[in-house]
Amino acid sequence: MTQTPAQHTITVLRGDGIGPEIMDAALFVLDTMDLGLQYEYADAGLAALEKVGELLPAATMDSIRKNRIALKSPLTTPVGEGFSSINVELRKRFDLYANVRPAKSFPNTKSRFPSGVDLITVRENTEGAYIGEGQMLSEDGETAVLTQKVTRRGSERIARYAFELARRTGRKKVTVVHKANILKSTSGLFLKTARAVAAEYPDIQCNEMIVDNCCMQLVMKPEQFDIIVTTNLFGDIISDLCAGLVGGLGLAPGANIGTDAAIFEAVHGSAPDIAGKGVANPCALLLAAAQMLDHLGMIDKAEKLRAAIIATLEAKDSLTPDLGGEGNTMSFAKAIAKRV
């Protein structure tokens, strides 16, 4: 007797620019996998602004709150109005404190490291300089001020998330990245808190690295890293650096995890210059979907999806132009789907 898969309803944000194209491709692949997923579509970004006059409508927030899981294509934040960033606003409203960004070498990509890179950046997502609290420009326009706030609570829970992730996934080392030699209060508090957490995980190796040295080491010898945990602004920079090591943002998924909700996304932009041309690479969103399946407990399905993406890249089957192929968004997705 065949067991019917458990039903999960997820909120789907189709996004702006190339967002709807890559979302259609990703859902096509997921639908071939018999996952028992149901989709509840919601609007955000420019699509929502045009429909209801809001970037983040209440109905969209209610959908995410109810379903607790969202798959999101890139959103465009209009310049000069609304939030400074829709993504930052979503993280703030749902307290999505852990930003999880894997970077893994893939075959047949335009990459400095076609093999050997397999690391995860765990970035604190709700505080620090990146949030932009207390921004002020003097009346004469000569002086700008920004408040950087780091808390023990925020540092403790992101460090614990990183060590739990290492233990859960069989990874052996967590690197705590900081600038406590200069930023002795904020980065110092983060480092001290992370050290205290590390002491509770004797089975996981912990080392510390100043952020500028970390960036140099990533470029020179990325295979030394397993999991990196760091503060918000440093994590934003490091995670994009890691994406550059393995072929760019077209292969970079991201998860934003909180206690009560989680949003999985392609971290690249909405690329309006190629929107509607059918040439966008859906891999980042598909890899984010694999993170979502992990989160839902479908570990074997997530691995099958990743394996199908790798097999399609190895076969150079219907790859999109950014990967050196002559395929399009949906033909690439269909090539992945037939291998799932």
What does this entry show, briefly?
Its EC number is 1.1.1.41. It is an enzyme of class 1 (oxidoreductase). The protein is of the alpha/beta class and 340 residues long.
Question: What does this protein look like?
Answer:
- With about 350 residues, this protein is of the alpha/beta class.
- The chain is about 40% helix and about 20% strand.
- It is built from eleven helices and twelve strands.
- It has a ten-stranded mixed β-sheet with strand order 2-1-3-12-11-4-5-10-8-9, with helices on both faces. Strands 6-7 form a two-stranded antiparallel sheet.
- Strand 11 (about 255) and strand 12 form a beta hairpin.
- The longest helix has 18 residues, at about 150-170.
- GO terms for molecular function: isocitrate dehydrogenase (NAD+) activity; magnesium ion binding; NAD binding.
- InterPro entries: IsoCit/isopropylmalate_DH_CS (IPR019818), IsoPropMal-DH-like_dom (IPR024084).
- It comes from Noviluteimonas gilva.
